[in-house]
Amino acid sequence: MLIQRLCTLADLPEIERLAIASPVGITSLPVDRERLSAIIEGTEAAMDEDVVFTGDERYFFVLEDVASGRLVGCSSIISAAGFSQPFYTFRNEMFVHACHELGLHNRIHVLSLCHDLTGHSLLTGFYLDPTWRSYQALKLNACGRLLFAASHPQRFADAIAVEMSGISDEEGNSPFWDGVCRHFFDVDYAEAERLGSTLGRSVLAELLPGYPLYVPMLPDSAQEVIGQVRPASQMVYDILMNEGFESDNYIDIFDGGPVVQARTAELTTVRCSQVATVRIGQPLPAEEHWLVANERVRDFRACLCQLSWTPGEPVILSETLAQLLNVAEGDSIRLMGEA
């Protein structure tokens, strides 16, 4: 069984292993022990704070195989993207060029560098060991953290965004980077991502042109991947779209992948999850899957399990499941049903 929880410094060796295994493009999971230590320490500090508004807090979640104790995945929420430096994206928009005398009216697709999403909360750092890849594991890794956001809304912004990995090959080459960004910063995509994870992406973004890029003037190879998701990330993308994210307005400045956004309170898991009181006992037979989490901060736990529960009633958990979720009789848990 898999349990999602917030990381501790004791997880550093396992998180470092996940970072080494993660593909190019997961800049928020750097292959740098010192940087990873700082991320973990930042999470531990955020857990200790009595947060009443968003700041530069980062919550780094890990997915643990209970049987072995090994970590098989991770994901994060940054409370406010661009808190210390702007959070850049390319805005997808249309310019109109018209000439009344010639009877011409053209709509041209352009990309404009912007930081419209600065201040949004950011879902980031998603990775799952391929040997554990299943819909259930992807769902828990992607949406368990949304139950945390639902229980602690004061810690997050009213709007939330996600950078989805764009198209790149096994060698780490990105058609969008090669066709657009490399003209302004002459390193390959893999090195750009490494520098972005070390120095911050805004350092490189500031070298990109501040004026609009006319998409028809870009190489075909770059045009074809604008807003496209890496095939390995398609299932996660579909899960997020089912949550209510919108995908048409922004793309990533490095690989051209979609940057999706939504109102936090309107996400399905946040809006539709319900709270129930825990009773310890013998659960009734059940086939329906529920995404379940306690409502703690430091001792947050979430899992995907089978339960028989009627909304408005207490939820009966086995002693084993209650221990895994770190809850006792009378505690509250948050549940979200799975279709």
How would you summarize what this structure contains?
It is built from ten helices and 15 strands.
Describe the protein in words.
The chain is built from 10 helices and 15 strands. The chain has 2 domains: 2-90 and 113-269, Aminopeptidase; 273-337, Beta Barrel (Barwin-like endoglucanases), CATH 2.40.40.20. With 339 residues, the chain is α+β, with helices and mostly antiparallel strands. A 15-stranded mixed beta sheet has the order 8-5-4-9-10-7-6-3-2-1-13-12-15-11-14, with helices on both faces. It has helices at residues 12-21, 33-48, 135-151, 175-179, 189-199, 201-205, 220-225, 234-243, 268-272, 319-324; strands at residues 2-6, 58-65, 71-78, 89-99, 104-114, 121-128, 159-163, 213-214, 246-251, 258-263, 274-280, 289-294, 301-306, 315-317, 332-337. The model has no long low-confidence stretch (mean pLDDT 90). α3 runs parallel beside α8 (234-243). The two termini are 20 Å apart. β9 (246-251) and β10 form a beta hairpin.
